[in-house]
Amino acid sequence: MKSISEAYIARLQESNTIDELGIMKIRYALAVLRNELVKTLLLTGIFALSGQLGPFLLVMFLILPIRLSTGGIHFKDNISCFVFSLGYFLAAICLLPLLALPIQVYWILLGCGILVSGLCPLAPSERRPIKSRKKYLQNKYFSLVYLFFFAVLLLVVIRDEVLVAMNVWALILHSVEMLFLKWYKRKEGHHYV
């Protein structure tokens, strides 16, 4: 029995509406969506069992647009990706907020995270590179606008200091990831668009 996606692809091939490269892109996109859905469901289950579902969903919802527009570390297999994501969210939601820093320190960390995320070059996946300067600048512009929105949410809207801390830590972890990628790609001789 064919999967829904394979049935859809077969229909596209039969109608000759898309070439082989287009089919490969569709297969890749559908595989990424499936893998991300499975990863998200597993993470949701883990955080639901740990009693941290609400904070997890909030942090994921707020950090996802930053991650999608700026990129980050990409792994070759799904297990490594899942373990990294689990570690990332466990650190941001369960471990780092235990430090219980004064709220002023979180504002400073927020500013540092925004500065680093805003200044670091984008880090797209090698399988989905940004091919034009226009697209690069669109993603960069979106990330800067969203970082402003993110800061307003944390400074004005969210009143729970623990939730603010979790989101600030998520941004700091993402910023560290971006700094690492900037260093690594420079060391490897990669250049940005």
UniProtKB/TrEMBL annotation:
The keyword Coiled coil does not apply. It holds the Pfam family AgrB. SMART domains: AgrB. One of its GO terms (biological process) is proteolysis. The chain crosses the membrane at residues 41-66, 78-99, 105-125, 141-158, 164-184. GO terms for cellular component: membrane. GO terms for molecular function: peptidase activity. It comes from the Bacteria. This is Accessory gene regulator B family protein. Keywords: Cell membrane, Hydrolase, Membrane, Protease, Quorum sensing, Transmembrane, Transmembrane helix.
